[in-house]
Amino acid sequence: MALPMEFWGVEVKAGQPLKVVPGEAKILHLSQASLGESKNSKSSDSVPLFVNFDGQKLVLGTLSPDKFPQLAFDLVFEKEFELSHNWKHGSVFFCGYMTVVQEGYPFAQIYILMEFIHQLDILCAWT
Amino acid sequence: MALPMEFWGVEVKAGQPLKVVPGEAKILHLSQASLGESKNSKSSDSVPLFVNFDGQKLVLGTLSPDKFPQLAFDLVFEKEFELSHNWKHGSVFFCGYMTVVQEGYPFAQIYILMEFIHQLDILCAWT
Amino acid sequence: MALPMEFWGVEVKAGQPLKVVPGEAKILHLSQASLGESKNSKSSDSVPLFVNFDGQKLVLGTLSPDKFPQLAFDLVFEKEFELSHNWKHGSVFFCGYMTVVQEGYPFAQIYILMEFIHQLDILCAWT
Amino acid sequence: MALPMEFWGVEVKAGQPLKVVPGEAKILHLSQASLGESKNSKSSDSVPLFVNFDGQKLVLGTLSPDKFPQLAFDLVFEKEFELSHNWKHGSVFFCGYMTVVQEGYPFAQIYILMEFIHQLDILCAWT
Amino acid sequence: MALPMEFWGVEVKAGQPLKVVPGEAKILHLSQASLGESKNSKSSDSVPLFVNFDGQKLVLGTLSPDKFPQLAFDLVFEKEFELSHNWKHGSVFFCGYMTVVQEGYPFAQIYILMEFIHQLDILCAWT
């Protein structure tokens, strides 16, 4: 059985923006970002996180080893987007989950019921 | 296939309140606010965020480059509202997602079933 | 079309407890509290927030201009409650959303199907 | 009409573990814990919170008047559990909400449809 | 009656990665991590948390007795994963809940309706 939700996680390296394409009928729920381990970082580093969506560049938040090693989101992406940061001392890990949009739900049910009513109409006509 | 959720994000500049209209049968879920990058800001700046809704001005929270570079919300707006702030050194980015209210759901289903029962009544009458 | 969720926000002034009644078939989701602006406050103020529900007084959390200017909740209230605080230097803003409990859902559907079966029984009897 | 969600809140006193039984077909959603008011507490107190579930004792988190006066959870309990802490200077307030699991949903609907099909079989047999 | 959600909690000891298998048709929602009690820890310890999923090792976040004794997640795991950390002075507790994916929902309903329509076809043919 296909499950409706799947774990999703990526490592985004400094200076290497990562393009993400959720895929047909899928929605990606972005839940969090966290700084990776680093030996050289200054704890006072300020690491803004960026998302590029539909030609627009937005700041998602700012991490810092000392004060904000992680950050929670409640965001969804239904089409291509790009994650990036400029932390020179390591990676940023983004996690969340992918959900499959059940095609036509609840419209499929309604369609089938309409079909059904149509069948009954035929039934009525035949009786 | 139309997806039930879509990413939504805006940049609100200092002194430029932004009016947002979710649109017919849509609900905007406001998930977060984050300070943009700034070279001149004092890290101790205190940046209150305001929402104007239905003639009422409310404080949504207070950001600060040093202590609160971002802020999570769990709010919905079903009609026009206005976001604003007075941070002199940069923009505030608001993100969330738009959901489409499936028209009449679950009432459509019930309506169709009622129609169906009505059809059967007719069927009963004809038999 | 009536939307299933509506923004909700109030200003609670010091020493002026605010009674909230969600209303028939409604549930209020309390999402956050934030300190209003204040010129006289000491940043070290400690502002406990209280809720009175069903004769019980509970602490919802503690705000402070310096350390906790806002606070997120995930609470629901299905009947009358009262919000209060004792911050002498300003208001506390509470926000969230109101949801309408769709009457009888999913029981309405089941009821209608039962009605339908009953109709069919009659149909059976008549045939 | 019975509402699907109800506010839930308790005061847990120091050294007085509190047993909670959600009840038949109910799920308790634990949303938060907050320290009560206290005149004698040192602001540097560290107050671990414990849950006992199914014979297992787990740490839910650690509060402190100075740094963490409250804590958000996203936990559910479908059967008996016990909350406790050892803060000598006051109570800890736990809040959340109770949800009623709609019996048999969506199985009830399917069952009724099956019944319905069975009725139709009888109808077929009779015609 | 089987409930749709069940509390889930584990203790992960230092140097003892814990493999978790949600099980057939189950999804584990990971809600939080918290440091256990410890007498010897330095409050400035930095404790990165790791997850191994599908051959990929990701940083989930970083705890610290002093600054981040707990951490909230909004993650799901639909298949085997492994949690680990290297805190030498105690355990990390992970909590969340298990949800049972209702087999075939909503497809079961649609299937049954289709069956039903098929029955009616037969009925039509017989009348």
UniProtKB/TrEMBL annotation, chains A, B, C, D, E:
Q: What is this protein called?
A: Nucleoplasmin-like domain-containing protein
Concerning its family, UniProt says:
Belongs to the histone deacetylase HD2 family.
Keywords assigned by UniProt?
Chromatin regulator, Hydrolase, Nucleus, Repressor, Transcription, Transcription regulation
* InterPro entries attached to this UniProt entry: NPL
All copies of domain Nucleoplasmin-like, residue ranges? 7-98
State the Gene Ontology terms under molecular function.
Answer: hydrolase activity
Listed Gene3D superfamilies? Nucleoplasmin core domain
Gene Ontology biological-process annotations: chromatin organization
Origin species, per record, is Punica granatum
Gene Ontology annotations for the cellular component aspect, listed alphabetically: nucleolus
Localization recorded for this chain is: Nucleus, Nucleolus
